[in-house]
Request: fold
Amino acid sequence: MRAAIVPRFGGPEAVEITEFPVPEAGPGQVRMKVAAAALNPVDAAMRAGVFGSAGEHVGPGWDVAGTIDSVGDGVSWSPGDRVIGLSTGHHTPLGTHAEYVVLPADAIAPAPTTLDDTHAAALPLNALSAAQALDMAALKAGQSLLVTGAAGGVGAHTVELAHHRGLKVTALASARDEQFLRSRGADDFLPRDAALPSAAFDGVIDTAILGNPALAPVRDGGAYIGVWPGQEPASERGIRVDALDVHADGTQLAELSQLADQGVVLARIAETFSLADAEAAHARLAEGGLRGRIVLVP
Reply:
């Protein structure tokens, strides 16, 4: 099978397409024939060597949509099931940017019935990150939340899910994104260059990785959740500071899949590329300015 790998760290040119044996599903695992796999900023960070490497090469790709084609022992899934899944890890030799991928059976969920594979592939990492960040914030219905970087992949899902959970949501993003974010559930909007109010929110989910500037708007004793472990600011004024380390959760992913079918969660695609053009896809991601995910199709 063909798979994208990064044999050496660098820019988009570091991505190569290489032939590998088709992996086999072991006990508790399934093998998916990949129909689509999203390209995320974390893949670019892996390619650039931000996380270092534990092996000879790194295989990018976390999100995946496709069809199960074989199962290991002790698995209730069946060949032919259409699913989405999340492959986590910064040092995996093979990721989801491949023609086949093996995942733990509890890392997958039924694909949304209303979405094609390309759109479904954009959900797992971003939607799970948003849901798990909200879980960490532990705010109650009626409390106030500021979401920085609200127009991004994780940020927009955070707005949607926070609204669905009954929070009062303020979105911080570029002015051109205000109408979109209000349509997705933002109660209030702040332009990215606006002065942030002091101690105005019960919590902030800082998907823009602003750090200290995003701590000031949190009330004393509130919650700050970052999305890049190690980049969160030091606690002050009794604020609970934590950072998300997203993990695969098939049960939670199944709930998000249902929310996608209900229109609560919106999958946004910016562009699609063939797997063979993975280098060009990385180059497009590096250009920025995207509203939605790039998706690779084998």
Remarks:
- The chain has a mean pLDDT of 96.
- The first strand starts at residue 2 and ends at 5.
